[in-house]
Every structure is written in structure tokens, then in C-alpha cells.
Amino acid sequence: DIQMTQSPSSLSASVGDRVTITCRSSQSIAGYLNWYQQIPGTAPKLLIYAASSLQSGVPSRFSGSASGTDFTLTISSLHPEDFASYYCQQTYSMPYTFGQGTKLEIK
Amino acid sequence: QVQLQQSGPGLVKPSQTLSLTCAISGDSVSSNNAAWNWIRQSPSRGLEWLGRTYYRSKWYNDNAVSVKGRITINPDTSKNQFSLQLNSVTPEDTAVYYCARDRAKAGGLDYWGQGTLVTVSS
């Protein structure tokens, strides 16, 4: 199975901050990388697919990028509703595996 | 607008079968452009993709090795829904179970059910 390693596991930030979350795959996944946001008690929500494509309806402050096996989710300016957990997922090969998550908390 | 509505019991006894259903509105389980997935989430295992079913002139299934031999995912075209059965459950199968749609290998899981907490306990 392809292992997805996210960092950091938790992050404290303030409204208005720029934050970056990283996900590294254990082998090449050819850009088949998705990012999700999860608010406690709700299902994950797709933010970014194919490493850098913004899902319809997702604010443009969210962006994704890739460099080899390293992938980055950036939130350009944090809004109060962005404090949640974030997960990466590869869909390059079965089984589709997720990162362990990054919990974004208010400083 | 696609909506996925999950149903099924929240408590299952050890060694028995976990059964959940995901009813689809706004799309078709027989769509040639979608696949229908089950994922679970627990504190110990995180988010874990379990398997999917999809139609491309015939029905296909993909399942995670971690549950292979115990999992069945079936479409029901008459009710436009799909189901999950997980046999021989243990307390380690306690989790929130989600159904979700994907449109393509590069498209991600774009619509999710509301989640069902299933507890395995006697």
C-alpha cells in the first residue's frame, strides 16, 4: 500500500494567517492527490483534487501544489470556519489511502 | 444536487454481520461516470477506504486487502442504492462508516453520506 505522511499533525494559527500543510507519498502517485476538510461530527469535504484543482464551490483561498512526491495545501488567509482537520488521499492505486490528518486549531 | 443517505443499525454483536445501505439521489448507481465507495473512520485507524462498486458495461468491485474475504459491496439498481456487508466483525470494526461517490481516478470523493457510527459490542 502507498503510505501518505502528513505534517504537521497539529497546527495553531490565527485568523488571517497563511498556513501550509504537507503530504508526502511513499512512491510516485502521478498527481492523483486529493485534499479534504473535516469539521467534527461531519463527513469530509473535498477541497482539492488532482493535486491542484479547486473543487466547485470551494473558496479560492484554498490551493494545492505538487513537487514529485510532496504535496502542499495552502490556505492564504485563515477564516474562522477553516479551523478543522485536513486530510490528503491518494487515488493512484488501490487501496486508496489517506494521510493521518492535520488538526488546525485557533491560536 | 447529489445526495447520499445512509441507513443501518448502529450496534452489531461480535462475529455477526454489519450491514449498511446508501441511497442515492441526483445520480444513478448504474452511471458509467461514477463509482460508489465505502470508507470508515476510527481514532485508531484514521480514514480507511474499504471498497467500491461501479458499472462500466458490467459491474466491477474493488476492495481493500485489509477487509478482503469479509466485505461485500452490492448495487441495487431497483432502489438506486448500494450496500455494505462486513462479516465476522470484531470490536476493531467499530467506526463511523461513510458512503461516498467518485467521478474519476483524478476526481476525489466529491459527495459523502452523513456517516453512521457502528459499534461492535455484545
Report on the structure:
- Chain A is 0% helix and 48% strand.
- By secondary structure, chain A is mainly β.
- Chain A is globular, with a radius of gyration of 13 Å.
- Chain A starts with a strand and ends with a strand.
- Chain B is built from no helices and 11 strands.
- The N and C termini of chain B lie far apart (39 Å).
- Chain A binds chain B through residues 1, 31-32, 34, 36, 42-46, 48-50, 55, 87, 89, 91-92, 94-98, 100-101, and chain B through 46-49, 62, 64-66, 98, 100, 102, 105-110, 112-115.
Count of strand segments of chain A: 10
Q: Tell the overall outline of chain A.
A: globular
Q: How much beta of chain B, percentage-wise?
A: over 45%
Which segments of chain B are poorly predicted (pLDDT under 50) over 5 or more consecutive residues?
Answer: none
Determine the fraction of residues in helical runs of chain A and give it as a percent range. under 10%
Sequence of secondary-structure elements of chain B: EEEEEEEEEEE
The total of helices of chain A stands at 0
Label the structural class of chain B.
Answer: mainly beta
Terminal Cα separation of chain B, in Å?
39 Å
Count of β-strands of chain B: 11
